[in-house]
Amino acid sequence: MLDMRPGCECCDADLPADAGGAYICSFECTFCAHCAEQVLALICPNCGGALLSRPIRPSALLQRHPASSTRIHKPQGCRPEPSSA
Does residue 48 lie in a domain region? Predict the structure, then answer.
């Protein structure tokens, strides 16, 4: 079962489990749509894997299968690499 982390690792934006707008990699690193698309170009800065849209967990199932409450915030790893031009 997915961990459904509650926030973006880059900007710490809230990412409710029952709403869209979150992206994850195969290790469940979690990012908001803005950071995933605009900052990270859909590549996880932690593992180099693809960032894909995270499915939502229906609100009716959250009580029985709650989302994680552990926030991971690593803004230092989310800055785009400087271009070597």
Answer: yes
- Do 20 and 14 meet the contact criterion of CB atoms below 8 Å apart? no
| The amino acid at 67 | A
- For residue 38 the two structure tokens come to 């605009």
Region class of 26: left (phi > 0), else alpha (psi between -120 and 50), else beta: alpha
In a domain, 64, yes or no: no
Whole-prediction pTM:
0.87
Total tally of structural domains belonging to the chain: 1
* Chain segment 63-82, per-residue pLDDT in tens: 999 999 999 999 887 876 55
